[in-house]
C-alpha cells in the first residue's frame, strides 16, 4: 500500500509499527534523524475521543468564576493564564497521580482516566520502539521517569494570526506559544481541533502545519510525535529535537483544544515536584536566556525583587510556555555587572549556569 502524506510529510502507520514492520520503523527513524518529529496514523475509534472532547469542551466553556473552584495552586490540575487554560497531570502504569491538585468534575475525571488508559497502551509500544532505536543500555536509560505527563490545553484564540506568519514568534503578541523543544524523551499529540500547531522542517527551515482534526480530510486520527531533548542527548544528536510552536488561527474566537502526553525525565519531574522554599531573588536588569527556545531573546528582569517563580510565570504568560517545559538547566542567568550574584542554597540555584 502506498504511503500517506500530510503537508508533504509522510504519515507513519501505528498499526504497522506495532507489528514490527521494518519499513515503517525505518521510515519513522528517518523522520526523527531529519526533523525530530513525524505524523502518525493512530488506531482509534472516532467515538472514543469525540466523547472525551465533548466533556472537556463543556468543562472549559464554564464561566471563569465557576472554574476558579477547581483552580490549582501548583503546576498540576486545572490552571489558567491570559490566553489559555489547561489541565496537567502525571500518569503511570497504574493511572493518574491524583494528589497535589483539586479534583475536577466527575465526568472530567472519568475522561482523564480514559485518556490515561488510552495513552498507556500507545506509549508503551512507542517507547519500546523508540528506545530500541537509541541502542542504549538499561543503565543509560535510568534518566527516564516512571511518570508520563498528560497535557490538555484550551487556547482561547481571541485574536487571529497575521496574513504572513512570523519567521520565529518571540512572544504571545506574535504567537500562542513560542518555538521550543521539550525536555523529555518524546511526546505524542492525539488531538488538535483547530489550526495552530506548527513543526519546523529542518531541511527547508520552514514551518509545517500540524494536523487539524476538525477538517474532514484530517479527522481520521492523525497525530504527531515530536522528540525532546533527552533523546537527542541519548543519541548524541542523531535524533533531532522536534521544534514546534503554536500560532494564532485564521479565524477569530475559534478555540483550540489539544491533548498530548510526554515521556519525562527524572530531572524534569523532580524540578516540578520540588518545593523550593528559598526562592531566588533576581536583581533588576538581570537577563535570563532560555536554551530550549531557539532564536529567542533574553528575558529581562525589570522589577525589583522578582523571584524565579514569578519569572517562570511570566514565561507562560508572555511566551505561552508552561513551567513543565522549561527545565532549570535550560536557564542561563547573566547578572548586571554592578551586582553580585546572590548567595542561595535553593534547589534552583544549584542547577543554574551562572
TrEMBL record:
InterPro entries per UniProt: IPNS-like_FE2OG_OXY (IPR044861), IPNS-like_sf (IPR027443), Iron_ascorbate_oxido_reductase (IPR050231)
Pfam families from the UniProt entry: 2OG-FeII_Oxy (PF03171)
Domain named Isopenicillin N synthase-like Fe(2+) 2OG dioxygenase: residues: 174-259
Name this protein carries in UniProt: Isopenicillin N synthase-like Fe(2+) 2OG dioxygenase domain-containing protein
Amino acid at each position: 500500500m502506498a504511503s500517506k502524506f500530510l503537508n508533504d510529510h509522510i504519515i507513519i502507520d501505528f498499526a504497522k509499527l506495532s507489528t514490527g514492520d521494518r519499513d515503517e520503523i525505518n521510515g519513522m527513524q528517518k523522520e526523527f534523524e531529519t526533523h525530530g518529529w513525524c505524523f502518525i496514523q493512530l488506531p482509534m475509534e472516532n467515538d472514543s475521543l469525540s466523547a472525551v472532547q465533548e466533556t472537556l469542551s463543556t468543562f472549559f466553556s464554564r464561566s471563569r468564576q465557576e472554574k476558579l473552584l477547581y483552580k490549582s495552586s501548583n503546576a498540576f490540575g486545572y490552571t489558567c493564564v491570559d490566553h489559555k487554560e489547561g489541565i496537567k497531570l502525571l500518569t503511570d502504569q497504574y493511572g493518574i497521580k491524583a494528589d497535589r491538585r483539586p479534583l475536577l468534575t466527575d465526568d472530567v475525571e472519568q475522561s482523564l482516566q480514559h485518556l490515561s488508559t488510552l495513552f498507556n497502551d500507545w506509549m508503551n509500544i512507542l517507547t519500546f520502539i523508540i528506545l530500541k532505536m537509541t541502542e542504549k543500555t538499561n543503565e543509560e536509560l535510568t534518566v527516564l521517569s516512571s511518570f508520563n505527563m498528560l497535557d490538555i490545553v484550551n487556547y482561547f484564540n481571541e485574536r487571529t494570526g497575521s496574513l504572513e506568519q512570523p519567521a520565529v514568534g518571540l512572544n504571545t503578541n506574535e504567537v500562542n506559544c513560542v518555538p521550543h523543544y521539550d525536555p523529555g524523551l518524546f511526546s505524542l499529540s492525539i488531538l488538535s481541533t483547530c489550526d495552530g500547531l506548527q513543526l519546523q522542517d529542518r531541511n527547508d527551515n520552514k514551518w509545517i502545519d500540524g494536523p487539524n482534526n476538525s477538517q474532514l480530510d484530517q479527522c481520521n486520527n492523525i497525530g504527531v510525535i515530536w522528540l525532546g531533548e533527552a533523546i537527542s542527548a541519548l543519541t548524541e544528536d542523531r535524533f533531532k529535537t522536534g521544534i514546534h510552536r503554536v500560532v494564532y488561527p485564521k479565524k477569530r474566537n475559534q478555540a483550540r483544544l489539544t491533548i498530548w502526553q510526554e515521556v519525562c525525565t527524572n530531572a524534569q519531574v523532580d524540578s516540578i515536584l520540588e518545593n523550593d522554599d528559598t526562592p531566588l531573588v533576581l536583581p533588576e536588569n538581570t537577563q535570563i536566556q532560555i536554551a530550549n527556545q531557539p532564536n529567542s531573546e533574553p528575558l529581562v528582569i525589570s522589577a525589583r525583587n522578582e523571584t524565579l517563580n514569578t519569572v517562570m510565570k511570566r514565561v507562560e504568560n508572555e511566551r505561552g510556555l508552561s513551567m513543565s517545559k522549561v527545565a532549570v538547566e535550560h536557564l542561563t542567568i547573566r547578572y548586571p555587572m554592578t551586582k553580585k550574584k546572590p548567595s542561595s542554597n535553593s534547589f534552583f540555584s544549584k542547577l543554574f549556569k551562572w
